[in-house]
Amino acid sequence: MSKSAPASSTGAEYTAVIKQDDAWWIGWIEEVPGVNCQERTREKLLESLRLTLHEALQMNRQDARAAAGKDFMEVKIAV
Hints:
The protein contains one helix and three strands, in the order E-E-E-H. The chain has one helix spanning 42-68, and strands at residues 16-21, 24-29, 36-39. Strand 1 (16-21) and strand 2 form a beta hairpin. The protein is elongated. The model is unreliable at 1-8 (pLDDT under 50).
């Protein structure tokens, strides 16, 4: 029997590494490879990073559940 966690946000925090490079703001999420963005303002960059991170986590969650098949459990792990 599969058991899933609620779809709501867990309130987890991630670290954005950001910098201004000429007219652009660029940034990465330290803890999640592949989550990076570029925008014209710092505020837009942070918004884009949040959205991109959310989408990446959703895709990773879907991939993990698909790989596990129909008989799995989800267990929270603290680091």
